[in-house]
Design brief:
homodimer; mainly alpha; Arc Repressor Mutant, subunit A; 2 strands; binds FE2/S2 (inorganic) cluster; DNA-binding
Chain lengths: 143, 143
DNA sequence: AATAAAATATGATAAAAATCATATTTAAGA
DNA sequence: TCTTAAATATGATTTTTATCATATTTTATT
């Protein structure tokens, strides 16, 4: 469903949503370890997210990555699309050019409705919501 | 969701379900072309399926691949598991060791129920059913 | 101004997945 | 029994994805 990079992106972003703010920036090494992703790899991913303004960063001493007030409203789907692009998640299970109920592949009716529901949820769920969920112990941020 | 190989496996198997029987065997070249998959590649996949008795084959002249009466009851999930293994489709979106509602990752509640429903459907839908669907024009076998 | 601590940009390497190729085995038909 | 048409087994190559490394830029602190 997601590429490895996107999984890492989500994990890292959630980590930031839980553990950072404009005046509690987090340095790459301190993100990489708890989410169990190689430092150089997660660095690249965070740079891409930062470039698209989905997370925030500042260079230099006392710098680091963080989730600004605005970033809190970023939706999971935005993270996914930033890394995987929009095509991957929306494409037909059997590789028709497009997944279209007017010209459905043989598996379409088995999955489309539920898949759309999931995609909608990813599009409406913000980092802030999930961070609250994690903080209250209802879900766990995996390593 | 599925690997490329699994997609091809499903396409090829459905093609056979629609176009073959014990006395209408189909040769590799005649499968590869309509489903738009390289011959040598689909050959390898069909061989794997045949070895697991999900499809049938005979060697030599007049030989080829086909779907036997028994094979008609094969479920889509069996094809998927034969190629991708059982782990891939069942694994946690964020790579927890296992996807478990008792120890859910942050995305679990957004997807689990629907994902399970889809997996169940793949497990209960047979080649025969989908072949009928295709024959009646309700869905299309993609190239 | 100099230093150092951070992200950023860029590219190199390694691992996995997808694709291609070919020699071997089997069985039908002449 | 010989030839030929098919699957089967095995392995090589290519492409993609994941991972690692490093030089550059920016900015806070001294
Ligand atoms: S057309 Fe294939 S999943 Fe929708
Ligand atoms: S625990 Fe992650 S999807 Fe279920």
């Amino acid at each position: 469903m997601f590429s490895n990079s996107t999984k890492y992106a989500i994990k890292a972003t959630l980590y930031l949503a839980v553990n950072s703010s404009e005046n509690e920036k987090v340095v790459i090494s301190d993100i990489a370890k708890p989410i169990n992703v190689p430092k150089a790899y997660i660095a690249k991913i965070l740079q891409a997210l930062s470039k698209k303004n989905l997370i925030s960063s500042t260079k230099g001493p006392k710098g680091g990555f963080y989730i600004s007030e605005e970033n809190k409203q970023v939706k999971i789907a935005e993270i996914v699309n930033a890394i995987d692009g929009e095509t991957r998640i929306n494409s037909c299970l059997l590789s028709l050019k497009e997944c279209d109920s007017g010209n459905p592949c043989s598996l379409h009716h088995l999955v489309y409705k539920e898949k759309q529901l999931i995609i909608e949820r990813l599009g409406s769920t913000s980092l802030e919501e999930l961070a609250k969920h994690i903080k209250s112990g209802k879900s766990v941020l995996p390593l």
